[in-house]
Design a protein that fits this description.
By secondary structure, the protein is α/β, with parallel strands linked by helices. The protein contains 8 helices and 11 strands. The longest helix is centred in the last third of the chain and has 24 residues.
């Protein structure tokens, strides 16, 4: 957290961590003004909104630069682009606990739960559910169970209001998730993700999931930003594969750290699963396709 950005105001100048970057109130106002002219969603940079979003379910309190409540993918893309132009970090929030992917930071905070919360599709044949990141877990479960007798395996205690985007950020599981293993799947959210549509801070958008060796080589040969990313992930995988196999804990509910084992060939070079649990540090999730079970 050495690059946290703090807002300095006339009334309150919070103590900044060593090495933190100063972000001025005028900079925040300029960013807010630009966003109000570009997006359809809500732009909340007032003190009240920032205070409301300064905490999650932990002991931490980090007042955000401002809060964005996007109405569409386009709003998200424009928000990230503007934040980059203004040198502001971003953090994405589902619910209000760590199910949000540790949803507080001194950053531009995006809350998907008000507008981008829909179940977009349930495919009973493939046993898949496609959702927006702010979709509440029980909304997906209701849509899958009522029509198709399907459900989603991971089961956090706060399933009635936690969001799929938050669960993906945190790699949630839950006490009843062990039952999902009876269907041959693991108990973590990472074990039950099929595909993610993601946005990078530099504006790159792509869909990620399992990747065969043939497809991986095609992506790398195609070049561009996506090819560069996949080439570097492959190089990382190849360099540390033996260490990952030998030293990653073989436990069903390992939810700490980056899922580098998802990049191993035997696990299908699954970039989506590798991103689950990364706490909004690598990508912003625009859409998610999740695996369902009976």
């Amino acid at each position: 957290m050495n690059n946290l950005i703090q807002i300095q105001t006339e009334h309150h100048a919070p103590t900044r961590p060593p090495g933190a970057v100063e972000y001025s109130a005028s900079g925040a106002q300029a960013l807010a003004h630009e966003l109000r002219g570009q997006i359809e969603g809500e732009v909340r940079f007032d003190d009240g909104s920032r205070a409301l979003y300064a905490t999650d379910g932990s002991n931490y309190r980090q007042v955000p630069i401002g809060v964005i409540i996007p109405k569409s993918k386009e709003d998200v893309v424009k928000t990230v682009a503007a934040a980059k132009r203004h040198g502001a970090p971003i953090v994405n929030r589902g619910g209000g606990t760590s199910l949000a992917g540790q949803g507080c930071n001194v950053a531009v905070l995006m809350d998907f739960s008000k507008y981008m919360h829909h179940v977009l599709e349930v495919d009973p044949e493939k046993k898949l559910g496609r959702v927006q990141p702010g979709c509440v877990l029980d909304d997906l479960r209701d849509a899958a169970q009522n029509a198709h007798q399907l459900t989603f395996g991971p089961d956090p205690a706060t399933h009635r209001w936690c969001t799929l985007g938050g669960m993906l950020g945190n790699d949630s599981c839950g006490v009843h998730s062990i039952m999902a293993r009876l269907d041959g799947k693991g108990s973590r959210t990472a074990d039950n993700v099929e595909e993610l549509e993601v946005l990078l801070y530099d504006g790159t958008r792509m869909n990620v999931g399992k990747t065969s060796d043939e497809e991986l080589e095609k992506i790398i040969q195609a070049g561009g930003r996506r090819g560069e990313i996949y080439a570097k992930l492959k190089a990382l995988r190849d360099k540390y594969a033996d260490e990952i196999r030998a030293r990653y804990p073989k436990i069903p509910r390992r939810v700490s750290g980056y899922n580098l084992d998802a990049l191993l060939p035997e696990n299908g070079f699954n970039v989506a699963a590798a991103l689950v649990g990364s706490e909004s540090t690598c990508v912003t999730i625009l859409e998610a396709t999740m695996q369902l079970i009976p």
